[in-house]
Batch of 2 targets.
Target 1
Amino acid sequence: MTQDELKQAVAQAAADYVAEHAPAGAIIGVGTGSTANFFIDALAALKDRYQGAVASSEATRKRLESHGIAVLDLNDVDCIPIYVDGADEVDAGLNMIKGGGGALTREKIVAAVATTFVCIADGSKLVDTMGKFPLPVEVIPMARAHVARELAKLGGTPVLREGFVTDNGNLILDVRGLAITDPKGLEAQINQIVGVVTNGLFALRPANVLLLGTETGVRRIG
Ligand SMILES: O=C[C@H](O)[C@H](O)[C@H](O)COP(=O)(O)O
């Protein structure tokens, strides 16, 4: 199977999960990226059953609207039973690195409101220890150099994502070389640096369910 076929399979499995677990009239949280895009396409078949969706990026909002799915402002929403999103890396504890597409902050906000986070990923994303994928850190522009120096003190090598501005008008530093032995501790530590909006570690709020696309079918963990 191609990687896209694996992504499509987990996206459909996530739509089936939503159909089974989210009550009619609910609002569904929707992530960002190529795997989430396949989920949006699968969710379109269920759109009459739900009130609408909350989007974790402008790209996702546009794709949802192109399918005629209503997109709500998170500030008008009390409860999101299920949030479905991809990941750049995920470990057996369902901790993740996210933000390869730069949407980490809005993703973290929607995930914070959601009751259940369903991570969808092809098998290549499951790792023993996270950190091969450079950790994205969203930074207020005027703090870029300060944050880069602080990240270097933690053992990382930050590189500015050239020509990229987040949906929030900020910059991304992609950080290689961090030892992620304590994902929760490192997530909190990086978020303490003045000028950091958030970082792409999702360990303080990990996924609840992982749907992993493999050659032998979709494997569910959690
Ligand atoms: O900012 C982007 C998101 O965190 C994505 O969920 C992540 O990068 C995975 O994307 P993809 O499904 O395209 O591999």
Target 2
Amino acid sequence: MKRTPPNPHPEYEFLGPPGAVAMLIVLPLITYGLYYNCRSGFGCPPAYWDAKDGLWPKVGSNPATYASDLWNFLLSTWDTDAFMVYSAFMVFLFVCYFVIPGHVVEGTVVGGVGGSPLTKDRSNYKLKYKVNALRTVMLIAVLVVATLMTKGVEPFLFLHGHFIGLITASLVWTFAVAIFVYIWSFIPDSNGQEKILACGGNTGNKIYDFVLGRELNPRFSASPDSTFDIKYFIELRPGLIGWVLLNFGMACQQYHDLGGRITNSMVAVLVFETFYVVDSLWNEAAVLTTMDITTDGFGFMLANGLLTWLPMNYSLQARFLAAYPVDMSMAHCLLVVMTQCVGYYIFRSANGQKNNFRRYGAAAPQNKGLKYMETASGSKLLISGWWGTARHINYFGDWLMALAWSLPCGLASPIPYFYPIYFAVLLIHRELRDEEKCRKKYGKDWDKYCEIVRWRIIPYIY
Ligand SMILES: NC(=O)C1=CN([C@@H]2O[C@H](COP(=O)(O)OP(=O)(O)OC[C@H]3O[C@@H](n4cnc5c(N)ncnc54)[C@H](OP(=O)(O)O)[C@@H]3O)[C@@H](O)[C@H]2O)C=CC1
Ligand SMILES: CC(C)=CCC[C@@H](C)[C@H]1CC=C2C3=C(CC[C@@]21C)[C@@]1(C)CC[C@H](O)C(C)(C)[C@@H]1CC3
């Protein structure tokens, strides 16, 4: 049965269905490409490029055999042990979610994305979520330390040696989860009504909706009291925790190869990225107000982002350093530490300022002295402090940290700079999408706000 008021049928984003098909093919190929183009013995262009080894598996040289080449290539990356390890990791996280105690928090009103008139009254309830990701990672840390003390680095070398198999395993999980949630989105809720669908993933075009994500909050039970939400579970656990574990595996490989030492550049990457992940898990509940949870559907794009893209591509710097160790000079270290500290300070204090303002209101003691403007929607907008400098100053802080994680790799190859380059594109695009959402929600008030806060991300630059 259709929903009343109905789920909106949106306009295409991401270049529509051709863009969606491209994502299905190109995103996995980028992850494979980053592996094949940057690994020990096969070079990382241009400085370490040994052309005779070839950079990319022979796919696509002859268009007539493209499909079979691609299939043979995928088969060659299959690794049963890696698949078992990745699957055991997923099952372990799933069990931890239920077994480890945690408090329950409420999200925002479901489906009322940004107060847009199109979606306003689709529900009047908030879903519940369990918060225990930090405890899960603490348990994993205890297990890792215990293994390290009893067996040394040997068991962790698996992560480096089976990296390509782990990529394929993560892609199998990505497609399995994406297909499941797509089919699940058609099953009516407990009232026999169509489920609440994402505003961006309900176009009626099957491939596009599969990629963008049809359902807003796929869950096993539609009851607001149940806490297992597939998107929320996957948002902060497999990707972020997997990223740190892979980094650790790369550091173990370097320790093994260098005969019992790791470089200061590897320490910097390990410490800063682990810190970022622990900080995100510490602030687990804050993810409930991000665009991913409140606005975007859960489909191939996010499943791939969290199960494959994030752990496999974000660990590139550590993988590079395992292959090509860098010993940083004191000046190099200082540059890296300063970039990280400035980035983190902007990122955390800007996000904190907005969270406090939204959560406790303008009159709360922690928000004293902050200037804001009233809007017709009833929601207030900060116009001083961090949010008075640029409309997404928090993105700038996040990007500076991304840069700080690549700088330890030196300048011999551009490949380890993949993360800050891709991240800049993602954040600029994300800012445009958020701007569109806010313009719909705040109307003329948003234009007024933009006149007061002129810069989008970096004051005086963009
Ligand atoms: N590491 C990674 O790969 C990624 C990290 N991120 C990070 O995630 C974090 C969350 O990002 P995201 O969800 O995109 O967006 P933001 O945290 O920037 O939130 C945007 C929302 O904040 C509200 N808002 C905007 N301006 C103001 C203002 N002046 N005063 C008060 N509220 C305002 C609006 O919502 P409303 O008014 O409706 O409340 C707007 O939609 C960021 O720090 C980002 O860097 C994001 C993507 C990838
Ligand atoms: C097209 C393409 C490459 C899509 C993939 C994008 C995803 C990798 C990112 C989209 C939004 C993300 C967020 C985080 C990780 C990357 C993805 C999934 C995030 C979990 C990182 C940690 C942060 O503290 C966060 C929780 C705010 C953040 C949420 C968004």
